[in-house]
Structure formats: C-alpha cells, structure tokens
C-alpha cells in the first residue's frame, strides 16, 4: 500500500468546502495510450488506490505497463469509537489523496483497446468518485 516514508507534520489542517476545483495540470494522458480521468473532486484513500491497482494489474500482467498518477500524502485522522467530542484531534489512521475534477489517475499502455477499457472500468469501480476513460 502507498504511504509516505516520512512526513514533516503528523496531522494536517482540513480544507474549506469548495477548495476542490478543476485540475489544471495532470489532466492529459502523458505516458500511456488510455487513462482513467476523474469527473468530480474528492478523496481517494490509499486502500482504494491499491484495490484499483490490483484490478488493473490482472489485465496488464506481462503484456502492458501501468502508471499511477496520484499519491496518498495527506494523513487522515479519526477518534476511537465511543469517545466523546472534544479532547483534541484524533490519531492518524491512514493516508489519502486529494483529487480535483479532470485529474488523470491511472494510465495504461501495451494492451488492445477492449482490454484497456475493461481494466480501467473495473479500476474506476473501486474508487469513490465518478470517472471516465479517455484515449490519447
């Protein structure tokens, strides 16, 4: 699973609502011939990225190549169950990536169009946001 080796701060500030806009960089297929692009902004956890990576790698195997264009670098905190409000912020429990609308998340190359679309469709089902498949 993906997570940073070292972080400067254990806990980050939360963003305000509406700070997720439209992506200006990372919006085009750069490495492969097909890509999975987000249609809405949101959080993608490290577990979701790993599940999508496994779904794609079943199709890619030895015939193609895959690129992951996002990295979960933001810590997620949570308080234990049945703990009252107050008494500070919870402990870090995992990492996630902030994704804006229009960001390319995965790219594939070396497969035919049918297998590429099927692999990216299955990967998109593992993520918690709406996605679409794009071609270079």
TrEMBL record:
<dbReference type="InterPro" id="IPR047873">
    <property type="entry name" value="Ribosomal_uL16"/>
</dbReference>
<dbReference type="InterPro" id="IPR000114">
    <property type="entry name" value="Ribosomal_uL16_bact-type"/>
</dbReference>
<keyword id="KW-0687">Ribonucleoprotein</keyword>
<dbReference type="InterPro" id="IPR016180">
    <property type="entry name" value="Ribosomal_uL16_dom"/>
</dbReference>
<keyword id="KW-0689">Ribosomal protein</keyword>
<dbReference type="GO" id="GO:0019843">
    <property type="term" value="F:rRNA binding"/>
</dbReference>
<dbReference type="InterPro" id="IPR036920">
    <property type="entry name" value="Ribosomal_uL16_sf"/>
</dbReference>
<protein>
    <recommendedName>
        <fullName>Large ribosomal subunit protein uL16</fullName>
    </recommendedName>
</protein>
<comment type="subunit">
    <text>Part of the 50S ribosomal subunit.</text>
</comment>
<dbReference type="GO" id="GO:0003735">
    <property type="term" value="F:structural constituent of ribosome"/>
</dbReference>
<dbReference type="GO" id="GO:0006412">
    <property type="term" value="P:translation"/>
</dbReference>
<comment type="similarity">
    <text>Belongs to the universal ribosomal protein uL16 family.</text>
</comment>
<dbReference type="GO" id="GO:0000049">
    <property type="term" value="F:tRNA binding"/>
</dbReference>
<dbReference type="GO" id="GO:0022625">
    <property type="term" value="C:cytosolic large ribosomal subunit"/>
</dbReference>
<dbReference type="Pfam" id="PF00252">
    <property type="entry name" value="Ribosomal_L16"/>
</dbReference>
<keyword id="KW-0820">tRNA-binding</keyword>
<keyword id="KW-0694">RNA-binding</keyword>
<comment type="function">
    <text>Binds 23S rRNA and is also seen to make contacts with the A and possibly P site tRNAs.</text>
</comment>
<keyword id="KW-0699">rRNA-binding</keyword>
């Amino acid at each position: 699973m993906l997570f940073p080796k070292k972080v400067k701060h254990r806990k980050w500030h939360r963003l305000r609502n509406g700070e997720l806009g439209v992506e200006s960089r990372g919006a085009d297929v750069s490495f492969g011939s097909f890509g999975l692009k987000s249609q809405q902004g949101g959080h993608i956890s490290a577990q979701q990225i790993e599940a999508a990576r496994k779904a794609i790698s079943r199709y890619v195997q030895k015939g193609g190549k895959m690129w992951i264009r996002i990295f979960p670098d933001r810590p997620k905190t949570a308080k234990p169950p049945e703990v009252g409000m107050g008494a500070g912020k919870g402990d870090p429990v995992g990492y996630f990536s902030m994704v804006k609308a229009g960001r390319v998340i995965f790219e594939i190359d070396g497969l035919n169009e049918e297998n590429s679309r099927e692999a990216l469709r299955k990967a998109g089902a593992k993520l918690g946001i709406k996605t679409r498949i794009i071609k270079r």
